Amino acid sequence: MVGDGACMFRAIAEQIYGDQEMHGEIRNLCMNYMANNQDHFRAFITEDYDAYIQRKRNPNVHGNHVELQAISEMFARPVEVYQYNDEPINVLLPREDPTADPPADGAPPANPPAPQNEQNPPFRLSYHRAVHYNAILAPNVPTIGVGLGLPGMVPGAADKDLLTKALAKSELEHIEETMLQDKIDLTDYQRTQADLEDQIARESLMTYLNDLEKARGEQAGPSEPSTSSATAPSESAAPPVESRGGLYEELLAAQSLEWDPYTDDVAIAEALLVSQQDFLSQQQNKPGPSSDEGPSSSG
């Protein structure tokens, strides 16, 4: 605890709020409680009681055993003070019911309540050099919130609930991450399949175009010389077939472009049409059969 005069209140705040910086709240509650119970605490104060309460409200004024007794009663928890030993040098117990009137003639009260000091864990403080307090915390026994009057409050239940929620959230995130990774892997597989199909389609198209070019080359080759003595008139000579290699070159260039099923289908249809037109042109330009017989003479 910070040695600023509020170390005792800091040690209590750490054990009941889990935050020593709330020492001002503990001090304020304590002094209000003592102001409202003057008859009980006045006998322990040697100076003017109101002046004492006002002085103790100063955030840098040290607390003592009187304030510890008030804190014990406020939160219904014992206070154990240790000093260089495992046995406490001082134990302050809360009154069972500070607001109840004492019974007449010293008779025991009817139906006394169960002692709170047997139910709630104590505040444990260590006292050093007669001027400084520290908090003693039991890591396996949570005590934060005990004595605040919260209904149904179980020390440590909030931490367990947070742990359960954290585990559930972690498991959910792991499942979502696994599902996302599966989708990514499936997407990669589908992309690979699409690339393979694209490559197969390109190779199939190029094979078809190569075969088509070979067929056109054979059809456009030189014809065998005629053995007939008669020659066809020069007017009937077949005109040279116009080269149509430009379309094929364009189709070859298509392999460097992205695959477009519609464009490739159109290109194939055009190639088939060109091939058909070339074949028909060659058939029309072939010379007809020549006659070896001369002109007939009359007898």
Q: Look at the helices and sheets and give the structural class.
A: mainly alpha
Q: Do you know the CATH topology of the largest domain?
A: Cathepsin B, Chain A
Radius of gyration: 53 Å
Strand content: 5-15%
Shape descriptor: rod-shaped
- The end-to-end span amounts to 151 Å
Catalytic activity: Thiol-dependent hydrolysis of ester, thioester, amide, peptide and isopeptide bonds formed by the C-terminal Gly of ubiquitin (a 76-residue protein attached to proteins as an intracellular targeting signal)
InterPro entries: OTU_dom, Papain-like_cys_pep_sf, Peptidase_C85-like
EC number: 3.4.19.12
Keywords: Hydrolase, Protease, Ubl conjugation pathway
Give a written overview of the molecule.
This protein has 299 residues and is mostly helical. The protein is built from 8 helices and 4 strands; from the N terminus they run αααααββββααα. The chain has a 4-stranded mixed beta sheet with strand order 2-1-3-4, covered by helices on one side. The chain has 2 domains: 7-153, Cathepsin B, Chain A (Alpha-Beta Complex), CATH 3.90.70.80; 163-220 and 242-285, no CATH class. Helices cover 48% and strands 6% of the residues. The termini are far apart. Helix 1 (7-16) crosses helix 2 (23-36). The longest helix has 63 residues, at 157-219. InterPro entries: OTU_dom (IPR003323), Papain-like_cys_pep_sf (IPR038765), Peptidase_C85-like (IPR050704).
